[in-house]
Amino acid sequence: MTERFSGSFTQQQPIPDAAIEAALAVLRHGRLHRYNVAPGELSETALLEQEFAAQMGAKYCLAVASGGYALATALRAVGVQPGDAVLTNAFTLAPVPGAIASVNARPVFVGVTEGLTIDLDDLAAKLDRAKVLMLSHMRGHLCDMDRLMQMCDAAGVTVIEDCAHTMGAAWRGQLSGGQGAIGCYSCQTYKHVNSGEGGLLITDDEMLAAKATMLSGSYMLYERHLAAPGPEVFERIKYTTPNVSGRMDNLRAAILRPQLRDLDRQVRRWNERYAEIEAGLRGTPGLTIVERPAEESYVGSSIQFLLLDWAPDQIAEVLRRCADRGVELKWFGGAEPTGFTSRYDSWRYAESERMPETDRILRGIIDMRVPLTFSLDDCRLIAGIIRAEVGAVFQQ
């Protein structure tokens, strides 16, 4: 009998009991707005910012409504103006070019390598086109951050890190989000902590932190932040920084704080599952494993492999056969955006130039979520199904 996987690729773990109790406490007192506090009370959101800054080794942190809002706020804070060019990855998700478009700037797309990281040679050729790089650590893959930062520092290019998929990851032991001027994280359901939606922004730059806080809609209540610069910094910019409201509320912050305290353990669990799937796929005819560099400590909440130079109908057949056996794969090379997948030429609000080698790689990227609701046996079964169906189509 052909085995079939019967689990869900979108079912997350339950919210921890400690987070539920914290959320109920907020609901019982009713002070959901981050600045609505009783005398002597510290808001859940302010405490979350303080704790996350310490966890990431950053001076300042701001909690906001979503990861995409964090990205757009970072762009505004570093001074991106309408019409400015912003470098970013060709292999990324829609909120990244969307954040650039939201401030009426122009994405300039940079190619992708077979390691699914930004192509540093292509970046070097395009560094003179912009003063800001929004670097997407897409699907949790970290490039050579030493080389990238050396290049950008030498060219005077400010780096904003999109760490939606790298909360808890590191390059040479330095946590993702700490190398650039600003690091942005997502707390959306399918990321590493789950508040439905939500975002976090970190920086060591006091002026950027103050601007981001004002932009988020602090209503001159910035003294209620625990991971923010002193009031004298806000005094310099409070009359000239617009309010683009996008605060996180106390309910979501209460849900997140216990989850963040458990992040390291969850990362280990994701990586156990990732390792099982990777081991089961290794050596499959026609399938290329995405090798991880030794300098990278990653979070295996999703896995990618390549079907390089396969015909589109063959890839579609693999996806169909796997789906028939309960395994949900996404293809970033499809001509039409499907679910969360898209190519840089899908965003028709942004001009782009063709990149043949990048197009070749995008046409071969297959992606799969690895939720923590999977057991290790599930992972072995899933890998076996993919291996069998890729092999069957490859041999036809």
TrEMBL record:
User: Which Pfam families does the record match to this protein?
Assistant: DegT_DnrJ_EryC1 (PF01041)
Does the keyword field hold Nucleotide-binding? no
List the GO molecular function terms. Answer: pyridoxal phosphate binding; transaminase activity
Query: Keywords of this protein's UniProt record, alphabetized?
Result: Pyridoxal phosphate
GO biological process entries: polysaccharide biosynthetic process
Any idea which residues are catalytic in this one? 191 (proton acceptor)
Query: Where, per the database record, does this protein carry N6-(pyridoxal phosphate)lysine?
Result: 191
Family affiliation: Belongs to the DegT/DnrJ/EryC1 family.
What protein name is recorded for this chain?
dTDP-4-amino-4,6-dideoxygalactose transaminase
Q: Look up and give the organism this protein is from.
A: Ruegeria intermedia
